[in-house]
Amino acid sequence: MVFAAPGEALARAEELLGADPSPLHASVAHQVIGIWQRDFGDTRRALAHLRRARELAARADSAEREADVLATLGVALVHAGRTRDGLAAFERGVARGTGHTRARVLYRRAYVWWVLGRHGEALEDVRRAVPVLRQADDVIWTARALTLRATVHLALGAVERADADFTAAEALWDTTGQEHDKADAVESRGLAAFRSGDVPAALRLLDEAEERYAKLGTPTFMLSIRRCEVLMAAGLATEALAEADGAIAALDGIGGQSTRKAELLLVAARAARLAGDPQTSLARAALAVRLFAGQRRTWYETHARLVLIEARVATGRASGRLVADAAAVAERLAAFGAPAAPEASLLAGRIALGLGWTADAERHLAVAARSRHGGPPLARMTGWAAQALRARAAGSARGVLEACRRGLDVLDDHRMTLGASELRARATAQGAELAALAQRASLVSGGPRRLLVWSERWRATVLSAPPTRPPADPVLLSTMTAFRELAARAEEARTDGGRPAPALEREQRRLEREIRSRTLHMRGEGRGDGDGGRFDVGRLLDRLGDELRLVELAVLDGRVHVLLCGQGRVRRFEAGLLAEAEREAEHVQAGLRRLAHPGAEARLPLVEAAGARLQELLLGPAAAHLGNGPVVVVPPGRLHRVPWALLPVLRDRVLSVSPSASSWLRAKDTAPPPGGRRVLVRGPGLASGGAEVPELADRHAGPPPPARSGESPRRDTGARSGGAGPLDGRPVLLEGDEASVPRVLRELDGAALAHIAAHGAFRADSPLFSSLRMADGPLIVHDFERLDRSPYRIILSCCDTARLASVGADELLGLVTALLPLGTAGVVACSAPVNDAAVVPLMLALHKGLDAGLSLAEALRDARAALPGDAVHQATGWAFSAFGAA
């Protein structure tokens, strides 16, 4: 019962002990309490109860009872870090037990061997136990043994064998009422899905297991360890570190298992390293090494040493000693049959290369490169990274580019199994080294065109295909509705009382976690199409023609390289350091914030001077070669907040911004939907009242637009030859209660133009919860992803709507980038706080240009020029950018 209904089992055992039972029955009761404390409570209390259970079994003169207790005690001692004593208890248990009891003892010793990382011994004990358990028709223990054997197979990389055992165990569990074991089986299937490379399925199964454990009221430390592994593979290292540290604190709070603490420290160390926090990684890994060594867990100690070496390298401590240490770790991992062995060989080779030890590097990298032909995606990428480094050391630029291409193809296929745009974006971080190697090789040997191809190969790849549409999941839909209502109530409480409502905000965060969790479960709908690999420079140059210039900024080793495309050629110029440009951009943002308020006119010359410095850092000598025509800027993700219209050479131009040249081409080739339907939305609580919206509605008063059919417009990806042209007919006006999220989404779907005046809120901690405030609560990025086709053009007239989070290799998450893959060809949005009143004339002038048939970029240029010359209006114009090509 202790694994079917743990709380009830504990209560029954305590009740039995209060009834003066016989030694035999008292032994069982103490053993049950010991198991509960061992797995869900205080290890010290567990040991006390189990020792008492053994004494009572001896008094009852029951060898079988004593053998069973000794096995439970052995597990507890090992989890407490007393490995030698635990194995000695098992020796006595195997000697005392016979037949069926001995098989159960052997199964538990096999579990301990797995905990210790001694997989050969674990498989041997399971091999001896399973036939006896089956012969005794012991369904529960047979299923446990098969589950354990599957888990050991996974640790050794034998995924197919693991799947067979998990399937057999699951069939047995279905015939029992062992709820805790069933939850454990779901958790194990999640681990198997992860090992086979299916991250969404792994997240879904681990979340299901957590729900099952929650119903039983049992802690989930092993589940936390496994979820951290999946989160790290999904690019969510910061979240993995937070979960691991939280679990460590909870485990310490109850005096829990020392073995679990060591494992949590190991995943925390790995997460900290991936999150760019090498000092935390060093501290966690060093403590994990000490604990594993004391527990005699060589397998785990070796993995912890690998992370420790990685952290030392990340802090700049590369040395010959670390090469030797990494090589020794690689040898031990290979001897264990551990899948992490190639990572250690790659690390040894990378350190050796940095020291100029080419012969040693080649030896280690050749070993690591073997993994490129098989195994899960990340293992193959490790192999291709090693192969690329080998080619670079040999001076073969062609070899580097081929290895990088193959490795990034693996990543593309992996990314397309992920349905959630967030996971796709974050997964690109795993290809950053390959992309950087390819760019360096291109710079040395291939000229500007090849550098452009490789800059595009990994830039804004998440925009190359629409995300998987969220499923018609009633639970997800109801959760999003509940989140919206709660967020509206929390906002109302803040507005009325000026203070947050903690209970509402806690519930809001819980609902956010549930929404995010369910969206991360979505699987992708296809394999990578290699779109980035097929980028055609010639086609780009044809579309640019002689007048238009596209400026793509590539960053190599911290320096900005300007790739100037136009007039049938690509030229390269060196500009400034990225770090300096980022600092200057922050100064500009601070200046624009101040200029949003009257009385800060004295700041205007300072902001303009900062714009000139930004121009020098970002464009350098390329600024003199832009010609007189329109310009498209393609910045790296870390420069997404630059107000490009502030740069002197761009200030009076038709200017648009795009996350990549590829996405600009797609936007250029996107045809506007038929009908020219326009939607005007005015949300609540705006300082200006969204004053431009009713004026725009009045400007186009006329016959109503045609009634909408129940069917959403189909996406049309045909090419167009020119702009969208003037828009005719009365727009759909949504304000007051009509500006609700469901109604707004219904009208936005397939519209030709949408203008939304609503409070924007950017969430740096969770970009896909960035929102626009509607009458019934926030309209979030997840809502937009439900559209069949987002508006062809969309104007977001309020603050911070163009703010984005830079994640992965060079990806951006936020409102604008959510719209671009869904059919939107052009967006006007704002990257800084602005003066609400000054926005109104800018928006009216912008629409005047659109009515005349101009593009968004053309209309925005003219609208800026039409504004009054004071500092507030100038800053407002600079803060808005046109994205895309419509």
UniProtKB/TrEMBL annotation:
| Bias type Low complexity, positions | 676-685
Pfam families hit by this protein: CHAT (PF12770)
Keywords from UniProt, A to Z, are: Coiled coil
For region Disordered, the annotated ranges are 490-509, 661-733
Against InterPro entries, the record matches this protein to: CHAT_dom, TPR-like_helical_dom_sf, TPR_rpt
- All copies of domain CHAT, residue ranges: 609-880
This protein is called what? CHAT domain-containing protein
